[in-house]
Design brief:
42% of the residues lie in helices and 15% in strands. By secondary structure, it is α/β, with parallel strands linked by helices. It folds into two domains: 3-177 and 216-241, 3-Layer(aba) Sandwich (Rossmann fold); 183-215 and 245-284 and 301-324, UDP-galactose 4-epimerase, domain 1. It has a seven-stranded parallel β-sheet with strand order 3-2-1-4-5-6-11, with helices on both faces. Strands 7-10 form a two-stranded parallel sheet. The chain has a two-stranded parallel ribbon with strand order 8-13. Helix 5 (146-165) links the parallel strand 5 and strand 6 (169-174). Helix 1 (12-23) crosses helix 7 and helix 8 (249-259) crosses helix 10 (303-324). It is globular. Bound molecules: NADP nicotinamide-adenine-dinucleotide phosphate (NAP) and ligand G4F. NADP nicotinamide-adenine-dinucleotide phosphate binds next to helix 1 and strand 5.
Length: 325
């Protein structure tokens, strides 16, 4: 039985990845940080199947002793401060988690478990003000937020440890991926949750920022499969994971309101400058041909299906909450 250590297991991707690894017969160990409340709703259904260890990416000793004690075959580093606007408010902390945190995990592996295979959660946010369309593994980075800058550091330190110490360390450059488990501050879930609340009469408006920004959105369940496939290869290499289709925030909004039977979004959506960013990433679209060719990876859920599944899940959830009250 292989052992996988997952940092960020309480996040959206961590929950889908844990489910996949359990299906594949792994012993799954999740690193969580101590908080005063114990709310881990995304992995509540997995608590009997996953082992949990307490650690923090800010704390080198905790990470090193976890790697030593768990003796993982594979390490998935998903933990990060992952919300882009927060990175302008807390740039130093974002750098500590999202950039130096990667080095702390790599250092632990190098020192006590160099045979472990390592996956780093890199991001399309590294392409930022894109220098070419679509973006591939060789496209130059031009990050537009402290988060993007931190991810570029995490990406290159992974490459550097692979080349310096011969570790099996890879980076997945993943484009936006969403689901019913996405945090409610991200635009897709903010929209599906807002639509559900409007549908059930809890509010009458949804305040958003830039409706013209474009993203290449896929389904998180499809994307964690790519992470796992990257660590099953013979040689460590980096891959872009994307659908190759791009849509605007406005497209997402339009389909979401139509799915809920609310008609035109224009009756409900207001523009709020608080949600407009100091520097924007206008157009992300990825070319995942290398992953298709070498990993046999394909996304299975389309953009339209993604919007519908998120809206339906939130409408059902809000209806159930109201019924309980
Ligand atoms: P998420 O839902 O925000 O989850 C982030 C996870 O990191 C949570 O489990 C969080 O734990 C943990 N974490 C944060 N700071 C930590 C620290 N100091 N020590 C230990 N754990 C810490 O993010 P996600 O959407 O699942 O994304 C997973 C990873 O992929 C992130 O690195 C993200 O930057 C990257 N990524 C995401 C996307 C996307 O579209 N989703 C695309 C490209 C790359 P708590 O529960 O304790 O907060
Ligand atoms: O959903 P978002 O906050 O995601 P963003 O910034 O693309 O970052 C996500 O994807 C990255 C991969 O490219 C990850 F690395 C990162 O961790 C995270 O998961 O915003 C998407 C777009 C932006 O252009 C933003 O300006 O939506 C636009 N937007 C418009 N109104 C809004 C809003 N974003 C948010 N969060 N809230 C709004 O009201």
């Amino acid at each position: 039985m292989k052992t996988a250590l997952v940092t960020g297991i309480t996040g959206q991707d961590g929950s889908f990845l844990a489910e996949l690894l359990l299906r594949e017969g792994y012993r799954v160990v999740g690193m969580t940080r101590r908080t005063s409340t114990d709310v881990h709703e995304r992995i509540a259904h997995l608590v009997d199947d996953v082992e949990f260890v307490s650690g923090d990416l800010l704390d080198q000793m905790s990470v090193a002793s976890i790697v030593d004690e768990v003796a993982p075959d594979e390490v998935y580093n998903l933990a990060a401060q992952s919300f882009v606007p927060a990175s302008w408010r807390q740039p130093v902390l974002t750098g500590e988690f999202t950039a130096l945190g990667v080095t702390r995990v790599l250092e632990a592996i190098r020192a006590v478990r160099p045979s472990a295979r390592f996956y780093q959660a890199s991001s399309s946010e590294m392409f930022g003000k894109v220098v070419e369309v679509p973006q591939t593994e060789t496209t130059a980075f031009y990050p537009r937020s402290p988060y993007g800058v931190a991810k570029v550091y995490g990406h290159w330190i992974t490459v550097n440890y692979r080349e310096s110490y011969d570790l099996f360390a890879v980076s997945g450059i993943l484009f936006n991926h969403e689901s019913q488990r996405r945090g409610k501050e991200f635009v897709t879930r903010k929209i599906s949750d807002g639509v559900a609340r409007i549908k059930h009469g809890l509010t009458g408006t949804l305040a958003l920022g830039n409706l013209d920004a474009k993203r290449d959105w896929g389904f998180a369940g499809d994307y964690v499969r790519a992470m796992w496939l990257m660590l099953q290869r013979e040689t460590p290499e980096d891959y872009v994971i994307a659908t190759g289709r791009t849509h605007s925030v406005r497209d997402f909004v339009r389909i979401a309101f139509e799915t809920a039977g609310l008609g035109s979004y224009e009756r409900y959506v207001t523009l709020d400058p608080r949600f407009v960013r100091p520097a924007e990433v206008d157009l992300l679209v990825g070319d995942a041909s290398k992953a298709r060719r070498e990993l046999g990876w394909e996304p299975e859920v389309s953009f339209e299906e993604l919007v519908e599944l998120m809206v339906r899940a939130d409408c059902d959830r809000v209806a159930a909450e109201l019924a309980r009250v």
